[in-house]
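Mods, move this if it's the wrong board.
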Amino acid sequence: MIVDKEVARNVVKPSPSWIRANSDRIYRWSSVATALILWQLSGLFLKPIFISTPSSVALSFAHLISDGKLPGAFLRSLLEMIGGLIAAGIVGIGVGLLMGRVRHIERALEPLVAFGNATPTIALLPVMEVWFGITTAARVAFIMVIATWPLLVNTVAGVKATRSNFTDVGKAFGLNGWSQTWKIYFPGTVPFIFVGIRIALAVGAVGMVLGGQEIGSTGLGGLSVIFGGYSQTSDLVATIVSTTGLALILFMLSRKAQDRYFPWIRDTSGGRRGSK
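Not the wrong board. Structure tokens:
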């Protein structure tokens, strides 16, 4: 009996099957493959002008890359997006920290922030054209305006949450006001800032497309207007996919930056890799 227990203890238990170990990945790729197959089959009974098939979109994508239209538009839109987001980050995070740390500034700016956040930003497109003309500056300014509010609101919320939880920590360590801001309040606000960044990326992508469509017909937004006007559906869908890809690239970069420079966010939010 003792020998049997020792043998049972030393027996190597079989490892989980490959399918079970990769079930999440299989589900994701299966859903994508199913959607692509159904999309391809839709071409059997729908006219190409209404919806193009994945194979036609892939051919259009290759053609647009080879003739240089898509890379040029993609690069222009990417640079405008980055420029607008950087400006929005400087304004939104900077003003948000001031509002969160100085109550008088918060009371003074709160009505203006509420008004600006509630304003339909698409209505500001003509204003940007009046101020800057049909130029790159107008498109970048529009992206900045549309992306500033989520960054500002989330930064203020983060400072307030940190203030309610760590209000006595800075005093206990003898830190003055600005030292508390950079050593306590800013680190505590970083998770909220990254939430604001992800929202700003989403609305900024919308602003990038609208700006390209309405101000100068350039970039990915301009291409979508041209292809839509000529009913070039496969080219239009390829442009839309490129726009989505641009936004996903920026999402990925923001996630990489968070994981590299602020890894404790993932650890403290219950989102560590491998956790269930």
